[in-house]
Amino acid sequence: MFEQSENLRHAAELQEQNDYDGAIAVFSEAIRDNPKRAEAYFGRGNAYEAKGLLDEAIADYNAVIRYSPRESMAYYNRGSTYVKKGDRIHAIVDFTDALRIDPNYAKAYYNRGLAHFKNGDLEKAKTDYSDAIRHDPRDADAYVSRALLHLVRGENDEAIADCDEAIRIDPENTKAHGNRGNALESKGDLAAATAAYSEVLRINPSDAKALANRAMVYFKQGEYQQAIADYSQAMRHNPGSSKWYCGRGCAYAKRGQTDKALADYGEALRLDPKNVEARLYRGLTRKAKGDRDGALADFSEAVADDPQCAKAWRHRATLYGLMGQLDRAVSDFTQAAKLDPSDAATYCQRGIANTRRNELLGAIGDFSKAIELRSDYSQAYYNRGLVYMIKNQLDHAIADFDAVIRCDATFAQAFYNRALAYKKQGDVARCQADFAEAERLKQAAAQS
Which of 112, 194, 274, 381 would bridge with 403, disulfide CB 3.0–4.6 Å? Predict the structure, then answer.
């Protein structure tokens, strides 16, 4: 550890008072008196780093290492400066050298972990965070960072455990409460997530991110007015978030306040013209208002901005279907299926378009693929049953309507169409029974 003379103590006091220029002057004078004085270079490097003069700081830390090569703090500080320059490779080398000299240096483990995390090397990051905790079990930040790593890996219970430990050490740690809320939200425990975000806001009522996070949870719970209030409060603290305007727009849309929703989507797109989500939601809102041309423009722009977005192709395909442009609809559904081959709804909707084009074999193939992906997809069974009816393949049609009824015993149209199939087969008893059940279900629905 460095020894400090009177003038170096004075320079350190100036630095503590944020008089970095004064500190640099005193450290520089000490260096002129003794060009090999490592502690003076170290102090001046700290002052340069505080002023944001990173290259000058690195040069001084280089001098410290030259004259005092066993000083672990010099490697640590130089590594931290490299992090500020965005050079994580050199930073990791320096933190490693600091640990080679002092294997108990908890902060070096922690900061090397941060660098590994930002480089995407999660295993090394986890090891370093754990070593930092082992050497300094009272460091709440290490628990918070390891919790974030667990979140990225989908390890929600482990993330919550680390956040709980961080909160035990530092009850006012907003990052710990916030990450805990993220993990609880990912687990689907929305009430507990709301409480966690509320705890962040108790500590810091102007935390815009916590307000937006709580707004998203309120939205998921169907509490749209509370979501709107939180998004609005978040925007007062940070008016530049396109994502939050989009979120509030969705909440307005759910409450039927379409003009306000459209205004928010428009503001989201003004702030970020490439916000595909806002463009899609505005397109859906325009479609619901009957503005098909406006909706088509939005969906087409979304496709142009992000050609890999399956939802953009699917929404445009659906609109083309409504507009009677069936060939374009099928083409867009096909592109959506290529991008997301696991989306059963895309195949089902393409099947409807193919049915309307009288491409019945293609339609049956589409509905069958949807059913393969979702064995309880009653609408796909129903639609395939209708196509089989058109083709007069009555046994297949009846089997599909049977499947619909197994999935949903209140599906009146399934009973009605099965009755028609039985009628064509001459099965009078079953036909009459199904017609009666279809009528009963329709009356029950009308009275409810």
Answer: 381
Nearest by Cα to 60 from 71, 69, 70, 49: 49
Which tokens hold the place of 189? 């425990």
Cα separations (Å) of 221 from 171, 191, 201, 266, 383?
Answer: 27, 9, 19, 25, 32
| CA atoms of 332 and 39, how far apart (whole Å) | 68
Query: Which has the closest alpha carbon to 312: 295, 336, 286?
Result: 336
96 vs 76: CA distance, rounded Å:
9
Other beta carbons within 10 angstroms of residue 232's beta carbon come to 14
- Alpha-carbon gap, residue 89 to 93, rounded angstroms: 7
Cα Rg, the chain, nearest whole Å: 32
Q: Please list, residue by residue across 119-132, b when 16 or more beta carbons sit within 10 angstroms of its beta carbon and e when fewer do.
A: eeeeebbbebbebb
List, for residues 186-237, the tens digit of each pLDDT value: 999 999 999 999 999 999 999 999 999 999 999 999 999 999 999 999 999 9
Which residues, including other chains, have CB under 8 Å from residue 439's CB and lie 6 or more apart?
none
User: Which letter, b or e, does each residue of 306-323 get, where b requires 16 or more Cβ atoms within 10 Å of its Cβ?
Assistant: beebbbbbbbbbbbbbee
Which tens digit of pLDDT belongs to each residue from 86-118?
999 999 999 999 999 999 999 999 999 999 999
What CA–CA distance (Å, rounded) separates 123 from 117?
9
What does 179-241 look like in DSSP terms, one character per residue?
HHHHHHHHHT-HHHHHHHHHHHHHH-TT-HHHHHHHHHHHHHTT-HHHHHHHHHHHHHH-TT-
Q: Are 239 and 265 in contact (CB under 8 A)?
A: no
| Whole-number Cα distances in Å, 426 to 57, 76, 402, 438 | 93, 88, 18, 19
Distances (CA, A) of 246 to 136, 250, 260, 270, 273: 42, 6, 11, 11, 12
Indicate the DSSP class of residue 128: H
Q: Where are the domains of the chain?
A: 375-448
Task: Say what the pLDDT of residue 295 is.
Answer: 98
Dig out the tokens for 417 from the structure: 């169409």
pTM to 2 decimal places: 0.85
> Which CATH number, 3.40.190.10, 3.30.450.20, 1.10.443.10, 1.25.40.10, labels domain 375-448?
1.25.40.10
For residue 253, give both structure tokens.
């849309």
Label residue 149 exposed, middle or buried (CB < 10 Å: 0-12, 13-18, 19+).
Answer: buried
Contact 323, 303 (CB under 8 A): no
